[in-house]
Amino acid sequence: MSTRMPEDFYSDGDDKPFLNCKVCERELNGSGVPYTIEKAYKRTQEGEDVTLFEVAICIPCAEKQAQKMSKESRRYLASVMGNQDFFEKRQGLWENWEENWKSKCIFSDSEVKQNDEYHIVGHFQDGELLPQQAPFLIGQEMIEEIQENLSPETKEEMDRFGDQFLGPDPTIKALMEDSQFVLV
Ligand SMILES: [Zn+2]
């Protein structure tokens, strides 16, 4: 199975792989530290995919950030991302991930439609996918469900993180007006 990073996970800035953790700025390639990349898109009326935000974050920083969430939110996210069902779906995707990983939401099996927001998530080490961990797509329905289940404190914390690390791009702000920043 290929562990090559799909170009979807390259930085929009220069169309190259991310080099550093957004938070601690540690180098991602050659450090051996696992990291996650999440990119959020909006599919426009015209069918074009516009990037809302992109972030590469090393696992130690992601864990620190997770500690800032409320207990309820952590429990909720663990129930979504840490359950057997999700594990099996992701394992099943590994077999043919290159053809299938973006075709539908890993949770709802819905395809991305016009005006939908969707996120892609991948876990990497030294520029390669972690074995058995297929990248996946989270569709609009599931993003909304996650947002509805996060506590107000966690939402505030995520907004703070977003403001600090994702930059106040006015275009993106406008696009994200209705959507809550979610990092998984
Ligand atoms: Zn870091």
What structural keywords apply?
single chain; 184 residues; alpha+beta; 7 helices; binds zinc ion
Overview of this protein structure:
The protein is an alpha+beta fold. The protein has one domain. It contains seven helices and five strands; from the N terminus they run E-E-H-H-H-H-E-E-E-H-H-H. Strands 1, 2, 3, 4 and 5 form a five-stranded antiparallel sheet that branches. The relative contact order is 0.19.
Number of strands: 5
Strand content: 15-25%
pLDDT < 50 stretches: none
Profile the largest sheet.
Answer: 5 strands, antiparallel
Distinct ligands: zinc ion
Tell me the count of domains: 1
Distance between the termini: 25 Å
Radius of gyration: 16 Å
Mean pLDDT: 89
Number of helices: 7
Helical content (DSSP H or I, runs of 4+): 25-40%
Oligomer: single chain
Report the order of strands and helices: EEHHHHEEEHHH
Q: Structural class per helix/strand content?
A: alpha+beta
General form: globular
Entry summary:
About 35% of the residues lie in helices and about 20% in strands.
Q: How are the SSEs placed, and which strands pair?
A:
Blueprint lengths: L34 E9 L5 E10 H9 L3 H11 L2 H11 L2 H4 L16 E9 L2 E2 L6 E3 L1 H10 L2 H15 L3 H6 L9
Antiparallel strand pairs: 1-2, 1-3, 3-4, 3-5
